[in-house]
Design brief:
The protein has 6 helices and 12 strands. It has 201 residues and is an alpha/beta fold. The protein has a single domain, classed as Rossmann fold (3-Layer(aba) Sandwich). It binds glutamine.
């Protein structure tokens, strides 16, 4: 980021809840770009991998020749927020993948897809997230994954009452199982933008 100009955050826009992330980020005063091509990686200060369907995003990333460059960008240290399917894309390892499903990796965790059951078992929860003050976040869990293994350099930032891990971070990535953008609460995005600001110091 040059001087005090707002950062530019890319939102992977192949599939999923792109518009909701875009609206929240714009409200927080940053520039946003809907990323559909590799040449749009240039100049991004951060990246959001939205919720949606991780196996579809994986297929499209490979079809469009974006998977390797995106994996390199993510592993290269650009700050990334992955929500739900986005968390699955970041995970090194997945349980319940469809045949041939791959991830970008870079976040040393194992996630279990659809850990709470099907769409009808989607629900809302209040979740305390480390680093976020005020009341718990009201979030939606929609065919959500949970984190079943946390590797070195990864911290747990959110758990449900039953102990399920639904939020993690490492030095450049935040991954959550839930959708903060559905309720419109912007505090997780603010936390992410702090990471973006720190990476530019
Ligand atoms: N179950 C989806 C997947 O595996 C994730 C759901 C979501 O992003 N809301 O990609």
């Amino acid at each position: 980021m040059a001087g005090s100009s707002p950062p530019t955050i890319g939102i992977l826009a192949l599939q999923g809840d792109v518009a909701e992330h875009e609206a929240l980020l714009r409200r927080l005063g940053v520039n946003t770009v809907q990323v559909r091509r590799t040449d749009q990686f240039e100049g991004l200060d951060g990246l959001v991998l939205p919720g949606g369907e991780s196996s579809v995003m994986d297929k499209l990333l490979r079809l469009f020749g974006m998977k390797e460059p995106l994996a390199a960008l993510v592993r290269g240290g650009v700050p990334v927020l992955g929500t739900c399917a986005g968390l699955i894309l970041l995970a090194d390892d997945i349980e319940g993948a469809i045949a041939g499903q791959e991830t970008l990796g870079g976040l040393d965790v194992r996630v279990k897809r659809n850990a709470f059951g099907s769409q009808v078992e989607s629900r809302e929860e209040s979740v305390v997230v480390r680093g976020i003050g005020g009341p718990p976040l009201d979030v939606a869990l929609i065919r959500a994954p949970i984190v079943t293994r946390v590797g070195e350099g990864v911290d747990v930032i959110a758990t449900l009452d039953g102990g399920e891990i639904v939020g993690v971070e490492n030095s450049t990535m935040i991954g959550v199982s839930f959708h903060p953008e559905v309720s419109g609460d912007d505090r997780l995005h603010s936390l992410f933008l702090q990471k973006v600001a720190e990476s530019q110091r």
